Amino acid sequence: MYMSRTIDKEIIKNFTLLKTNQSLVYLDNAATTQTCVAALKAMDDYYTKSRANIHRGVYNLSIRATEQYEAARDQVASYINADREEIIFTSGTTHSLNQLAYSLSPRLSHRDNIVLTRLEHHANIVPWQQMAKHYGFTIRYAELNKDGELNANSFQKVINANTKIVSFTLVSNVLGTVAPGQEIIKLAQASKAVTIVDAAQAAAHITLDVKKLNCDFLVFSGHKMYGPTGIGVLYGKKIFLEEHLEPFLFGGEMVQSVSYENATWAELPYKFEAGTPNIAGAIGLGAAVGWIKKAGIKKMATQEEKVISYAFKKLTPLVKIVGTRKNRIGIISFTIPGIHPHDIAEVLNQNQVCIRTGYHCAEPLHHHLGLNGTARLSIGVYNTTKDIDALVVGIKKVKKLFA
Amino acid sequence: MEMYSELILDLYKHPANKGNLPNYTVRWEEHNPLCGDTVAIEIDFGKKGEIKNIAWQGNGCVVSQTAASLLTDHVKDKTTKVAAKFSSEEMLELLGLTKLNPTRLRCALLGLKTLQKALASYVART
Predict the structure, then answer these.
(1) Which of B1, B13, B61 sits opposite A342 (nearest CB)?
(2) Do A366 and B61 touch (CB under 8 A)?
(3) Count of the separate structural domains present in chain B
(4) Cβ-defined contact of A372 to B59 (cutoff 8 Å)
(5) Which domain holds residue B58?
(6) How far is CA B124 from CA B26, B46, B72, B84, in A?
(7) Where are the domains of chain A?
(8) Which of B3, B36, B65 sits opposite A358 (nearest CB)?
(9) CB-based contact (8 Å) between B5 and chain A?
(10) What are the tens digits of pLDDT across the range A226-273?
């Protein structure tokens, strides 16, 4: 056992579902994490003590709600080392990426290209494909090296003078590999391309610093970092948000002044937040971020590293792991020859072990690697080596059943 | 544990009617976009429109693959009309799996969907 029983209890205390279902082995954190008590409590407080719309009322209740919502923005901003005006609340990573695809593509023409990677989640492929059909630009894919990783070389080969956007995932949701973000962004900026970082799988596991990364945009979801569903973030460099990006949704809150003929936009970040936002969601995310900060992301990462190392060691003789050990956090996708991933998950389910199977919203990558679906385990801060032991027992059972 | 009964596992390891036909009248392929399971059915129709010979290919989970074996066995020698009436409920009964969750239901009915489309394409042609 790597983790002492006390730390185990200390963490589990923050996750009601896991605390009340101690025999459950939850290993699908790349899909969604459990919600921490701090987030649940903050949302409950909003609903039961401060429920009102924000930015509208002069009465105390509305002012309190507004303060909580804006405090959440401050929390998120400081979490990624951004300024508060640079934080736009969206419904999640998919929303953020769609918004960027819709907003940035109109300035592209058939002479231009954008660069994505072989690793991308559907949310960072499909919106661009749709825009490419409309505006005529081409999509280039940065290739993986023989270890299934992205490196600077992958991008050097595809970025040229006509590359206008480079959008890539910082952590692969299939392989768990971490891309060299800073290096890639430097390369993209040498060609004056706009840079977008999909940090959905990174946000709960590695320190994010947008100033150090120097990216133009960075997006992530609340529900993959111990926060609620339906809330996410679109970070944009102030200069970009002010001068280059037009509002995507129009309506209330995002306007400065409206006549029957025309409208002018509110200042940052409000011009990008039309309609009543997901107030409770933002407050919940703010609290989740606060909880991560308190628990210490580096400490969490150290614990996760121990569990994933243990999993790698235990699984290597039993299954075929996709990719190598190098540069990997939190995620292992695997296959067992002759057994369909669905059947692996079904038998594991009988042992109360939850893993994901199929394409994990990355069908092109699976085909690219010659895989017809995989089984995937992904860990969170509450997972221990005991969970991996339970997984191993389940996998042995599957193999026996199909022998 | 009924999903992984000896009967089903045995059929999964030794499928019935799996392969290609030397001659066929129609071929239809369907896949489950969620998990990538595929089933393709080839049918050689007789003079009276009966299913003279039927074979299938595919890959996927135990549920989708054993369903294809059982289904093709069941409709062999039946007329197009009778085969087309075979329902989802009857398919699940044939499999012996009546309490499937929505995800696995799609696996169980993939073969039937393929058969229905194959039959419809034959009927449209004649």
Answers:
(1) B61
(2) no
(3) 1
(4) yes
(5) 2-125
(6) 11, 16, 21, 13
(7) 5-27+296-401, 41-293
(8) B36
(9) no
(10) 999 999 999 999 999 998 899 999 998 899 999 999 999 999 999 999
pLDDT per position as a tens digit, A138-158 = 999 999 998 888 999 999 999
**CA of B61: which chain A residue's CA is closest?**
A340
d(CA A183, CA A162): 19
Topology of domain A41-293 in CATH is Aspartate Aminotransferase; domain 2 (3.40.640)
At the second CATH level, the architecture of A5-27+296-401 is Alpha-Beta Complex (3.90)
A361 is an active site residue: yes
CATH code for position B75 = 3.90.1010.10
CA distances from B21 to A119, A137, B41, B112 (A): 39, 45, 10, 19
pTM of the predicted model over 0.90: yes
Residue B1 pLDDT more than 60? no
pLDDT at A6: 52
Placement of tokens 């339906």 in the chain: A230
**Probe site for chain B from A340, A361, A399 (most B CB atoms < 10 A):** A340
CB pairs A-B closer than 8 Å: 43
Q: What pLDDT score does A62 carry? A: 94
Write the ipTM: 0.81
**Contact residues for A307 (Cβ-Cβ < 8 A; gap 6+):** A2, A379, A383, A384, A385, A387, A388
- Convert the pLDDT of each residue in A43-60 to its tens digit: 999 999 999 999 878 899
Judge whether B40 and B121 are in contact, CB under 8 Å: no
**Residue in A28, A336, A339, A343 to test binding to B, most B beta-carbons within 10 Å:** A343
